TrEMBL record:
Pfam families: 7tm_1. It comes from the Eukaryota. Residues 1-207 form the G-protein coupled receptors family 1 profile domain. It is found in: Cell membrane. The chain crosses the membrane at residues 12-33, 54-75, 95-117, 150-178, 190-209. Coiled coil: none annotated. GO terms for cellular component: plasma membrane. GO terms for molecular function: G protein-coupled receptor activity. It comes from Magallana gigas (Pacific oyster). Gene3D superfamilies: Rhodopsin 7-helix transmembrane proteins. This is G-protein coupled receptors family 1 profile domain-containing protein. It is a multi-pass membrane protein.
Length: 230
């Protein structure tokens, strides 16, 4: 109750969690773009170095925190409501946040689907060109395993991210436009927020664990080894 009646504590509590999620979505978009450039235009990818990656990550976190700090510096309806509810944040701010998150999710999903389409096409061409050699050295089992692994990775990064965010967005719209008890609103919102937190934390881990290229980039950053797009 103390936090609910204190303006700056309410807004700061909202900012700390939501800004990190927005920043993580921008980081995931950067990873998708980096992989897209690597596959579609390897020659241009040679110009991408650690400085570009660091700059993207820094800008992602700055934008995420700056946007969600705007209510803290005046873009709010606290004088009208005087208590920490979703209505304290202006309609324009909420709509802007929802549109921004949806655009990032759609862009991320489209890039990963396009990468999957390219990878699938390249896999078919390779199979048709070196089918006999591949059968001798790898066998059908390993080829099928690689295809399944590529599909599972794309599904986990793109579709699971969307599925984790949609319940929270629906709940936020529901509590805004329908009347219900304050406690019920808080509980429902926090429960729908759990999948978002889990997705934001595990998506980079999944990407790094299943992607050899990303592991190579991390090694090059830690041990100062030249990074190659393989």
């Amino acid at each position: 109750e103390y936090v609910l009646t204190k303006k700056h504590l309410c807004l700061l509590n909202f900012t700390v969690f939501r800004s990190g999620i927005l920043a993580s979505l921008f980081v995931l978009l950067g990873l998708a773009l980096e992989r897209l450039i690597c596959i579609v235009n390897p020659w241009k990818y040679r110009k991408v170095n650690s400085c570009h990656v660091i700059a993207w990550n820094v800008c992602s976190f700055l934008f995420g925190y700056i946007y969600f700090l705007l209510p803290f510096f005046g873009w709010n309806n606290w004088d009208k409501y005087g208590v920490c509810t979703i209505h304290v944040f202006t309609d324009s701010f909420r709509i802007g946040a929802e549109v921004l998150v949806l655009c990032l999710l759609v862009a991320n999903s489209c890039i990963h689907l396009y990468l999957f389409y390219i990878a699938r096409g390249q896999s078919k061409r390779i199979d048709s060109l070196i089918k006999s050699v591949q059968l001798q050295h790898t066998g059908n089992g390993k080829r099928g395993y690689r295809k399944r692994k590529a599909f599972v990775t794309v599904f986990m990064l793109a579709f699971m991210s969307t599925l984790c965010w949609l319940p929270h967005l629906f709940v936020v719209c529901f509590v805004i436009y329908f009347k219900m008890g304050f406690i019920f609103k808080q509980v429902l919102t926090e429960i729908s927020y759990v999948p978002v937190l889990l997705n934001s934390g595990f998506s980079p881990v999944i990407f790094g664990y299943r992607n050899r290229h990303f592991r190579s980039a991390i090694k090059s950053l830690l041990w100062r080894v030249k990074h190659e797009c393989v």
